[in-house]
Amino acid sequence: MKHPKPILILLAVGPLSPGAVGLAFGDDDDDDERREGGQEESGWMESRAPLSPVVNAIYNAECGSCHMAYQPGLLPPRAWAEIVTPTALANHYGDDASLTEDLRTEISAFLGASSADLALQGDPLRLDASGSNTGRALPRISATANFKNEHDEIPSRLVAGNPEVGSFSKCNACHRGATEGNYNERQIDIPGHGPWKD
After folding, report:
1. H helices of 14-156, where?
2. Residue 40 pLDDT > 50, yes or no?
3. Beta strands in 39-179 (DSSP E)
4. How many CA atoms lie within 13 A of 176 on its CB side?
5. Higher local confidence (pLDDT), 87 or 114
6. Cα–Cα distance, 109 to 12 (Å, whole number)
7. Please, are residues 138 and 129 in contact by the beta-carbon 8 Å criterion?
């Protein structure tokens, strides 16, 4: 026996290895969810950093006066273009949100320049190649595939049936960081229900 030390080391370390492997796989990865800048990633926006907060004062004032000023990155450019046409604004999800041409042009430019790439577009068949909606309902963030995938386990009674929320379109009712662009599921607090555990 020329090499007794390596065999003794293997025999001593060997029984510890399954425990070490178990610890590695048993780690709940809480530390791994922290990313650069202290931002957590999870859920809907998992593959990307949190969206930038809305910094356009006109968009914030005009659109944010009726509902949350949604981050442009939640929809692709042609969806926003469809939403801010004069006709669509005159019947904006059941309300008249008409704007002067100057305001509409400014908001449209901001949304188009700051919106998501096509990979985040929900249903590519919603808009035809020209960007026209061809008489169908206006694009909705809540109709995108990513949104549906992340909200499919949430019972409607906690949102639509909840008088403190009322609709899945009221992101900031449950997502405490929504106005800052952070949709991390650890910051979800459903009114009347509490934190959401996926």
Report:
1. 16-26, 57-63, 77-83, 86-90, 101-114, 145-151
2. no
3. none
4. 10
5. 87
6. 67
7. no
Tokens of 76: 């692709």
pTM of the model: 0.66
- For residues 17 and 70, give the distance between their C-alpha atoms in angstroms, rounded to a whole number: 50
CA–CA separation, 125 vs 35, rounded Å?
35
For 94-109, write each residue's pLDDT tens digit.
999 999 999 999 999 9
pLDDT at position 176 over 80: yes
d(CA 54, CA 72): 8
179, pLDDT greater than 60 = yes
Compute the radius of gyration of the chain from its Cα atoms: 24
Interatomic CA distance for residues 53 and 34, integer angstroms: 20
Nearest to 70 by CA among 152, 162, 139: 139
Q: String of b and e for 167-182 (b: at least 16 CB within 10 Å)?
A: ebbbbebbbbbbbbbb
| Tokens linked to 69 | 């000023």
- Per-residue pLDDT of 120-155, as tens digits, reads 444 433 433 334 445 578 999 999 988 999 999 999
Residues 108 and 118: their CA atoms lie apart, in Å, by 17
